[in-house]
Amino acid sequence: MALIIIVIQPCKRTSSPVNTEKPEGPRILFTGIIPSDVSKLTEVIINLGGGVVTSVKDCTHLVTRKIIRTVKFLCAISVAKYVLTPEWIEKSQQSNTFVDPSEFTVKDSFSEDIYDMDLITSLQRATTRPLLQDILVYVTQNVEPSPSSMKEIIQCAGGQVLTTVPSQQYLAELKCKAVEQGSPILLIISCDKDYQLCSEFIRKGFDIHNAELVLSGVLKQRLDLDLYKL
């Protein structure tokens, strides 16, 4: 089974104010940036007319130093227009206006090789179509990262999380529909500890995957359904 590597960062308070209303300018979210730098960069953003948000769903720009598998990053890659280095904010401060962000996209070939993905391609794919659009996802209770974190990642990618096991009749209908359209309608994300809880899905012919299907999927903005099976 594939190794799952993920860093979950708790939300940190900063001394700088955070806009509570959506600004007209960029709405920026940070991940993987130390709090002292966040405070300084937040002040610059607000002075330039932008805003710093705490909800991933509200962000237009993610600022980080590298590709890092935090929950924020895994959510933002599905919804943000840009994933940028802090140098974008610093250059904007020098110019006294938000400069073209296209030159400041995070470049992290090391992580791209590890995760077999290309950040610019992933952002383009996410803009074209949400990865999990029209897909239901059921997550069992002992999956890591936690089901609540998985729910956030899945919803940002356009998916709908099921909170209860569907009836056998509904599962049969979903399976038939998936076969007809040739694409997945229901994904079951589980782990070795919970595998025995998946008998209803297995009985109807559904594959059971570990969380890496979603985690790697959102990084690549591509589902590799033949991989990560339990």
From TrEMBL:
GO cellular component: MLL3/4 complex
Pfam families for the chain: BRCT_2 (PF16589), RTT107_BRCT_5 (PF16770)
Leader peptide range in chain numbering: none
Major location (coarse): nucleus
A GO biological-process term: DNA damage response
Residue ranges of coiled coil: none
Domain BRCT: residue ranges: 25-106
Subcellular location: Nucleus
Matching InterPro entries: BRCT_dom, BRCT_dom_sf, DDR_Transcriptional_Reg
Keyword vocabulary terms for this entry: DNA damage, Nucleus
Official protein name in the record: PAX-interacting protein 1
Species annotation: Desmophyllum pertusum
Lineage, highest ranks first: Eukaryota, Metazoa, Cnidaria, Anthozoa, Hexacorallia
Gene coding for it: PAXIP1_2
